[in-house]
Write a structure and sequence with these properties.
Blueprint lengths: L1 H25 L7 H8 L5 H11 L5 H12 L5 E8 L16 H13 L5 E9 H4 L2 H14 L10 H7 L13 H9 L1 H5 L6 H15 L1 E2 L12 H7 L1 E2 L1 H14 L4 E6 L9 E7 L5 E4 L17 E3 L8 H4 L15 E3 L7 E7 L6 E8 L2 E9 L4 E8 L5 E6 L2 E4 L1
Parallel strand pairs: 3-4
Antiparallel strand pairs: 1-2, 5-6, 5-8, 6-7, 8-9, 10-13, 11-12, 11-14, 14-15
Helix pairs in contact: 1-3, 2-4, 3-4, 3-7, 4-7, 9-13, 11-13
């Protein structure tokens, strides 16, 4: 009984401290950025977790810890995770485990049998989890501590504080479920640090991680249709995955060891099936290097790449995610999070112009992928004219609009 009373008393004190600190935030006390105050004010009960994080660092001599907390919290409102399920037209869940099929061809036979029978097949979001309402102080504090610790490695001296904030510190790469992957990385891969004793050139570690993952984790086509990426523990157990899984693993390793890294992705490849993900890592010259999966270089020599985007954590005011109403339905990859257009870094591009019926309307350009036309870029019309400035060359494109949450031709 006494232990329970002490626990309740401790929780009460924490809540009171959190609420007191919130009142300080609301008063816009000097030193706390207005954007951070705004982010905290946009969440509900979970603001206690955010204020506990700031309170944890508020009196530390090293301001990098506090600035890291500010950066993560400032950009929390547009971060979220999505859990998907695979259903038929009757909204019945389809059980789908890549390992249940002996081969990719067996999976394909099952897939197309499901897809073209009367029930169809589709992915459906079953749960959205906003980071600002679900993230814990424990995850934030652990992320900050381990990220800043990684700056002590000798190969990190070439990177700026801005590189650190955008491409080392963030805890997520897309809309995957929240999990503390940094702790797991250090538990399983700290031996990599010892193998590169006194190494100051980050390129050595980048090449080492790239080669290690390619040699110990395999791409498996059976995983191409899984509804969402595997978490780190699943990848370590299965030793296999799709391009997104492999890219996430490389990026987790690189960030855990202080090397700026993120994910570049092609929303949909033209005239084929699927999307394509790969890791990019920043070298000592500040240039991102593409860590392509084995035997995929051919993709960049064919006319299959319409757009390439780079996932970022901070807000891009020019992205559709910034400009649209959050309630507006947009096609996959286009308006679900912030990114940068890096198509010109990989393929020759050209502007594509269309005449359309309406002005001030949101249009999409699409490529043919997996027996469907799928959106890869967006633009808003002006004077019944629409221009997509940087599309991959020698690809067939169609113009589409969203009607009742579905893409239809103009």
């Amino acid at each position: 009984m006494q232990t329970r009373f002490i626990n309740l008393l401790t929780i009460t004190v924490l809540l009171i401290n959190g609420l007191l600190f919130q009142s300080c935030l609301k008063s816009k006390r000097p030193g706390i950025p207005a954007e951070v105050v705004k982010s905290i004010s946009e969440t509900g009960f979970n603001r206690i977790e955010l204020t506990k994080t700031i309170a944890h660092y508020i009196d530390q001599d090293d301001s990098l810890y506090l600035q890291s907390a500010y950066f993560l919290i400032q950009h929390l409102p547009h971060q979220y995770a999505v859990k998907y399920k695979m259903t038929n037209d009757h909204d019945s869940t389809l059980n789908f485990d890549p390992k249940q099929f002996d081969s990719f061809q067996a999976q394909q036979n099952w897939w197309y049998d499901q897809k073209y029978n009367k029930n169809g097949i589709r992915y459906k979001a079953k749960k959205y989890s906003l980071d600002k309402d679900t993230i814990t102080a424990e995850l934030l504090i652990n992320t900050i501590n381990l990220a800043i610790m990684s700056r002590s490695y000798p190969w990190t001296t070439a990177y700026s504080i801005d590189d650190f904030f955008e491409y080392v510190l963030p805890y997520r790469f897309g809309n995957e479920s929240l999990h503390d992957w940094r702790t797991s990385i250090l538990e399983n891969f700290s031996w990599m640090i010892d193998s590169l004793d006194n190494q100051t050139d980050p390129s050595e570690l980048i090449d080492f991680i790239d080669l290690y993952v390619d040699n110990h984790f395999s791409f498996d086509k059976r995983y191409l249709r899984i509804p969402e990426p595997q978490c780190l523990e699943e990848i370590l157990q299965s030793k296999t995955g799709n391009y997104q899984d492999i890219a996430y693993l490389k990026a987790m390793l690189l960030r855990s060891f202080g090397i700026p890294s993120t994910i570049d992705y092609i929303p949909f490849l033209a005239d084929t099936t699927g999307s394509f993900y790969f890791t990019v890592a920043m070298n000592s010259d500040g240039i991102f290097e593409a860590l392509l999966p084995l035997n995929t270089e051919y993709l960049f020599k064919q006319n299959k790449i319409p757009k390439v985007y780079r996932r970022i954590y901070s807000k891009n005011p020019k992205s559709l995610f910034s400009l649209k109403e959050l309630s507006l339905s947009t096609p996959p990859f286009i308006g679900h999070y912030h990114y940068q257009d890096v198509t010109k870094d990989y393929v020759a591009t050209l502007p594509v112009e269309f005449k359309v019926k309406n002005s001030d309307t949101l249009y999409y350009t699409a490529v043919y992928n997996d027996s469907m036309w799928r959106a890869v870029d967006w633009a808003i019309t002006k004077n019944q004219q629409i221009i997509f400035p940087d599309l991959g060359q020698n690809i067939s494109y169609r113009i589409m609009v969203v009607v009742s949450d579905s893409l239809v031709f103009e």
